[in-house]
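User: Hi! I'm working on a homework problem where we have to compare a predicted structure to a textbook description. Could you give me the structure for the chain below?
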Amino acid sequence: MDKEGVAPDRPTYVWGSDPTVWMESSPTRYLRADLPPVLILDTDGDEAWRQQQNADLAAALRAAGHKDVTVHKVPGRTHMSVWTKMNDSPSEETSSHILRFAARVLGPLYGLSRRVQNSRLEPYSGPTEGCHE
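Assistant: Happy to help. Predicted structure tokens:
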């Protein structure tokens, strides 16, 4: 909790004001080797403390013996635009990376062929009512 950007530095409507809840909410409390595969995304436009938190989490997972930690830095984005730009094009990097990760992890469980796992999906073009911009 001595790191910038963690609960004491955040508005109370985000994490509340109970230090016990902060500690129990921290992913670092639950690190172990047998966790499912982990994908950590950040951006080169994130604040330095966010980028450091992601690097620290990946290092802590690996130190705990986790063998499947994927880290990807999305260029030209910020903490918010990494999500709001995901539907920009069929080759948009964030959504493509998430889909490839999901296909790699879930594909064998559902019998997806390597061809399906590596295919590109078209972006969603349906209604976006209620979606955050």
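For your comparison, note the following. Confidence is low (pLDDT under 50) at residues 121-133. The two ends are 31 Å apart (CA to CA). Good luck with the assignment!
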